[in-house]
Amino acid sequence: MRERTTMDPPRLEEVSDRIFAYIQPDGSWFLNNAGFIVGSKGVTLVDQCGTEARARALLEAVGRTTSAPIQTLVNTHHHADHTFGNFTVPAATTIVGHRRARDEVIATGVGIAQLFEGPDWGDIEVAPPFLCFEEQLTLFVDDLEVQLIHFGTPAHTTNDVVAWIPERRVLFAGDLVFNGGTPFALQGSIAGWLETLDRLESLGAETVIPGHGPVCGPEVYPTLRGYLRFVDEAARRGFEEGLAPLELARSLDLGEWEGLSDPERIVGNLHRAYSELRGEPRGHVLDLMPVVADMQSYLGGPLVSHA
Ligand SMILES: [Zn+2]
Predict the structure, then answer these.
(1) What is the pLDDT of residue 6?
(2) DSSP assignment of 192-212
(3) How far apart are CA 154 and CA 41, in angstroms?
(4) Ligand 1 centre distance from Cα of residue 175 (Å)
(5) Which of the chain's termini has less CB crowding within 10 Å, N or C?
(6) Over the stretch 65-94, which tens digit does the pLDDT of each residue have?
């Protein structure tokens, strides 16, 4: 195992009255964001963390903020960094997510952890969402309306949900927004994500809590579009020339995207783009192992998480 890199501790930011973003630097693999909304009688959490220790640290941060119990946990999608910690919430907590998020959490299980070197995962138990919806669900924290919205197409994954709080113009975007890290579309859709960004932008959020990276505003959308278009254009060219995704990735000049963390995701993104160019449906299930092997080849070593 490589030497552990110590990241700055998570930080809590009150982005609007009683709405908190929980930001885990530096936003790379398994260092996701979460957040919570505090009501007079209970707390709604948005996402959990990817290791047991980090999940419990999030619960402690909630406990230092309010004595109100956690009532609800919303998962923005099935990825393990956002859901491994689900099992740590109080047993009476209602775990909410998209119908396919439930299926994917169960199908993914804990095995995905073996693909990454680094973290002490703890004793993860799979705890999928059990209140599920397909399009939209509205929940209230006291009188504050929180709209949980799925935009009808695979994007980052097949089951992305945002938590939109219109009264405060605050958006918990989940991994539909990466801020400073490479967006990862392997289990979603490049075209669907581009469409979804238009829908997201039209919500009119002033404060955007991304799935990874610092809190931002709507200025993040053009950057995301730019990266996804870069992937799309590169893939069209490479597909035409008959290059395999790894070959194409190695020949690519990442240019302005060079500085984003986890650049090896370009390989996974090209695999997804090729699937779409082959005419497969958005979110079509791709075999993970060969893609991970390609990402490792691109990196010249194992996938490492500093969570
Ligand atoms: Zn994700």
Answers:
(1) 82
(2) HHHHHHHHHHHH--SEEEEEE
(3) 35
(4) 5
(5) N
(6) 999 999 999 999 999 999 999 999 999 999
The answer to the question of residue 257 being in a domain is yes
Q: How many A from CA of 15 to the centre of ligand 1?
A: 22
Q: What angle do CA 119, 62, 165 make, to 5 degrees?
A: 105
Tokens of 263: 């650049």
State the Cα–Cα distance between residues 181 and 82, nearest whole angstrom: 16
Distance 249 CA to ligand 1 centre (A): 21
CA 241 to ligand 1 center in whole angstroms: 30
Cα gap 120→307, rounded to integer Å: 8
Query: In angstroms, what is the span from residue 140 Cα to ligand 1's centroid?
Result: 25
Domain presence at residue 214: yes
Mean pLDDT of 192-196: 98
Give the pLDDT confidence of 239-298 residue by residue, as tens digits. Answer: 999 999 999 999 999 999 999 999 999 999 999 999 999 999 999 999 999 999 999 999
pTM higher than 0.90, yes or no?
yes
Q: Is residue 1 in a domain?
A: no
What Rg do the C-alpha atoms of the chain give, in angstroms?
18
Helix axes 265-277, 220-241, angle to 10 degrees: 60
Q: Is position 204 within any domain?
A: yes
Residue range(s) defining the domain that contains residue 246: 11-304
Query: Rounded to 5 degrees, what are φ and ψ at 294?
Result: -65, -40
Q: How many CA atoms lie within 13 A of 52 on its CB side?
A: 9
Asked whether 268 and 185 are in contact (CB, 8 A), the reply is yes
Query: 174 alpha carbon to ligand 1 midpoint, in Å?
Result: 7
Number of domains in the chain: 1
